[in-house]
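Write out this protein's structure.
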Amino acid sequence: MESSSFIRRLPKAELHLHLEGTVTPETLIELSERHDGSPLNLSQASALYHYTDITGFLMAFKAVSEHLRTPDDYELITWRMLEHLASQGVVHAEVYVSVGVVYYWRRCDFEPLFSGMERARTRAESELGISVYWIFDAVRHFGTEEAARVFRKAAELRPQFPTIIGIGIGGDERRTGAEPFRELYAEARDAGLRLTAHAGETTGPENIWGAINIGAERLGHALSAIHDPELMDLLAERQIPLEICVTSNLRTGCCLRVEDHPLRRYFDSGLMVTLNSDDPALFHSGIADEYAGARKNFAFTDEHLRELASNSIEASFLPPERKVTLLRCIESLK
C-alpha cells in the first residue's frame, strides 16, 4: 500500500500517449449515443477492444477513432484523459494526436476539433494543475503526402497555439521506415517543432537507426535496440530518450513474455528510459500500472522509480525552469 501511494504521489510525465487510445468503452458508448442511429451497447463497445496482434490493435484504434466527430467529442475525451492522468500523479503530458487519421480517413478540417481539445486542456491546467503539449502524429503508411499535411498544419498553428510542441510518425512501420520522411522532418525542425518517431516496435534495429538519422530527438518503443550492441552504445552515449511502453508491447504481441522485455537491461545499460502507457484504454494499463509493473516484474525499487520519473521530466520538451521545479518536487517526495 505504501509503495502504491508512493507511485501515485510521484510527480511524473507521460510522454508516449495517444489521445484516441484513452477512450474507454463507456465513453465510446456516449459518443455512439451522440452520433449513431443504433448506438453501441457495452458488449459491442467492449468487443472493439479485443485483438490478438499489432494489426488487430491498429484496426481497433481505427474503430474507436471513427466515433470522434465533433469538437465536443474531442473536448470530452481530452478532459477525461487528463482527469485520469492527474489521479495517477502525472503533472505533464505530451500527447500524440492522430491528425493523419482525421485527414486521411475523414477528409475534414482539424482546427475545429483541436479547439475542443484546447478547451479541455485549459480547464485541466486551471483545475487539475496538469500541463499538456500536443504532438501531431502522421500515420506513416498513409505516405509522405499525408504526413506533409500533418506536419505543416502543426507549423501553421503553432504560433497561435504554442502547446503544439512537435511531430511524429506512428502507424505500421513494417510498411515503411523513417527515411522517406527525412525532408519533412528537416522542414518541421526548421519551423521550430520538436521531432519524435515510433521506431523498432515491430521491426529490427535498422528502423531505430533510420529514425535517429532523420533527426528524431525521442524514440517511441525502441524495443529491438537490444539486438544491436553498437546502437545500445550510441543510445547510452547520446542519452536519446526512449518512450518505453511495456504493457503495450505485450498486448500487441511485439514482445511475447514480460521476462523478455529489455526495459531493465536498457536501464542498467545507462539508457535514458521513460515509462509510458501508450493507449491505456486499449491496453487496460495506466501510467501508475506501468510503474507498479516495473517494480513487480523487473525488481525496480522506489528509488529506481524516482529516477524513472526524473527521466520523464528531463526527456520532456518542457522549458528548463519548469523541469528544475518538477525535478525538485521528485527529489523531495518522501
